[in-house]
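Re: the 116-residue chain
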Amino acid sequence: MPHPVIHAEIRSTDPDATREFFRDLFGWTVAAEGALPGYTFIDTGVEGGTFVAISPRQAATDEVLFFVGVEDVEATLKRAEELGGSIIQPAQHVPGTSFGVFEDAQGHRVGVAATG
């Protein structure tokens, strides 16, 4: 299975101000509300591009993450740990998708996601 970057998130202390900033800078608009309060999917104006979302932060600091498509989120997180990484956000399940976040041994945070 190829592992494309399928999703990107800007996790912010103030998602409303973040949405306003990127609206004013790039013309991005809210495409849809997500399942988490304050979580929105963004229309970047590119058909078929990577999904982008702006949300409340889900860690101690603001961050920008990209998510790689995988077949099995839990197995991928486990493998990341075996390779010296650590799990930052264990597998979460919401309608239609599962996702999690790991940090590699150098401190880079990356998300993984699977449909279903």
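Strands lie at 5-12, 29-33, 40-43, 51-56, 63-69, 86-94, 97-103, 109-115.
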